[in-house]
Write a structure and sequence with these properties.
This protein is an all-alpha fold and about 70 residues long. The protein has one domain. The protein has three helices and no strands. Helix 1 packs across helix 2. The protein starts with 14 loop residues before the first helix and ends in an 8-residue tail after the last helix. It comes from Deinococcus enclensis.
Length: about 70
């Protein structure tokens, strides 16, 4: 069976965001299965998309994106 092709995305995150990502991966991990930071990001994308599809939290996400810690550094 051929391996599923995935797209790669590189983003710049702050040290605080990396620490949150690491802590989240650690908390989701169990002795039987370690969760990677990439898996946490994929989970977050799916969760946000699901909530937006249901019309939930739209204003909250927009407010978060307006804060300095979440914006792109172009």
């Amino acid at each position: 069976m051929p391996k599923k092709e995935r797209k790669r995305l590189q983003v710049v995150i702050s040290e605080e965001q990396d620490a949150l990502l690491t802590r989240t991966a650690y908390e989701l991990s169990s002795p039987e299965r370690l969760i990677s930071k990439s898996e946490v990001v994929r989970l977050a994308i799916e969760k946000i998309a699901q909530e937006l599809g249901e019309g939930d939290h739209l204003d909250q996400y927009r407010a978060l994106l307006d804060t300095e810690g979440v914006t792109d550094e172009s």
